[in-house]
Amino acid sequence: MSQPEPIPPKTTEAAEPYSDVLIVGAGPSGLFAGFYVGLRGLSVRLIDPLPEPGGQLSALYPEKYIYDVAGFPKVRAKDLVDRLVEQLAPFQPAYALGERAETLEEADGLFRVTTSQGRAYRARAVIVTAGVGAFQPRGLEAPGIREFEGRGVAYAVRRVQEYAGRRVLIVGGGDSAVDWALGLKDVAQVTLIHRRAQFRAHAATVQQLLRAAEAQELEVLTPYEVREVTGDTQVRRAVIFHNQTGEERTLEVDAVLVLTGYVTRLGPLANWGLELERNKIKVNSRMETSRPGVFAAGDIVTYPGKLPLIALGFGEAAIAANHAAVYAHPELKVNPGHSSEKPPQGAPSGS
Predict the structure, then answer these.
(1) Where do the FAD/NAD(P)-binding domain residues begin and end (predicted)?
(2) Peptide bond between residue 223 and the one before it cis (omega within 30 degrees of 0)
(3) 117 is in an annotated binding site
């Protein structure tokens, strides 16, 4: 594969580091976009409000298996992130972690992005791969839930072994709730409750759940909701109720996992002058937004036929990165050629 000679960073203010391409979001699409930018011989910087790369994969379900990534019959989320970071590493990317991108301006032919930490970064092109945007757990209003957050009440599973031998109440009916009920049943005593008889998870995993309940490997109760959680230094009990009959049950529990989804919003990105549709960034087939020089990929984008899959996000990231590379340096060609013709040798980092 033909690859240009490394392009040195352009001179900018020392206090505002430069990279050829700036990527907003260090989730799987952002990391793979960074790899492709590096493959083109350009410098790249990734900005993300989380303290580590990986986006939702690292923050929400690092222990969860993913089954629809090409080449992996199954891969743990945290392992996929590790491989993506390893793949990007030879190109010496610059990271700005723990910083939320706030504003986007243009001056002297460069984009300037300021962050929540009061820093500013400059680049010739920008790729937005911010996933679903800013997200926070959709909590419950039941008494005791907020009081016991971090003391038995949680909104994600960080490590499976934390729940080994424990009595775990899972609240929810979507993919995360069903997947984790199945994922924890072999190490913990699991009860799953959902406010409706119908689940929103994939049909195949719902059938697995119901078969596991029939085999008494876990308990499934519908339509039940949480009335209250109580305890001392840790959560100890959960009062649940049948939302049609009002019948109450008290469960002895060691942990309550509230897996009822997340509230998402674009946050400051909504003010970047990009055309939006239902809180998503509209892009064309080149992953261009309505603002020249700003590209986007992954769950944050929309276009006809879009599917929210990690596997598709990788393809979108490659398209966005190659077009961003050409925008940053028009002497390049969009088609990078085949990587098998010339293995990656690394690229310069930003200042």
Answers:
(1) 20-304
(2) yes
(3) no
Q: Which residue has the tokens 């960034």?
A: 281
240 in Cβ contact with 247 (< 8 Å): no
3-state helix, strand, coil in the chain (%, to 5): 25, 30, 45
End-to-end CA distance of the chain: 27
With both helix axes pointing from N to C terminus, report the angle between 310-328 and 28-39 in degrees, rounded to the nearest 10. 40
Q: Which residue has the higher pLDDT, 350 or 236?
A: 236
Indicate the SS3 state at residue 157. coil
Q: Which domains does the chain have, with CATH numbers?
A: 18-135+263-341 (3.50.50.60), 139-260 (3.50.50.60)
The pLDDT of residue 245 is above 70: yes
Token digits of residue 271: 């003010």
Residue 231: CB partners within 8 Å, gap ≥ 6?
A: 144, 148, 151, 152, 237
CB–CB of 270/104 below 8 Å?
no
Tell whether 95 is in a known binding site: no
pLDDT score recorded for residue 6: 45
Count how many residues are written for the chain: 351
Nearest alpha-carbon partner for 172 in 152, 154, 148, 151: 154
* Cα–Cα distance for residue pair 69/84, rounded to 1 Å: 12
Establish whether 135 is an annotated binding residue.
yes
Is the separation of the CB atoms in 22 and 99 below 8 Å? no
Q: Is 48 annotated as a binding residue?
A: yes
Say which DSSP state 246 is in: -
Predicted confidence (pLDDT) per residue in 281-302, tens digit: 999 999 999 999 999 999 999 9
Q: Of 60-64, 170-174, 279-283, where does mean pLDDT reach its minimum?
A: 60-64
Share of the chain above pLDDT 70, in %: 91
Q: 299 labelled as ligand-binding? A: yes
pLDDT of res. 344: 66
Burial 153-169 (b: 16+ CB within 10 A, else e): bbbbbeebeebeeebbb
Q: Is 29 annotated as a binding residue?
A: yes
- 340 is known to lie in a ligand binding site: yes
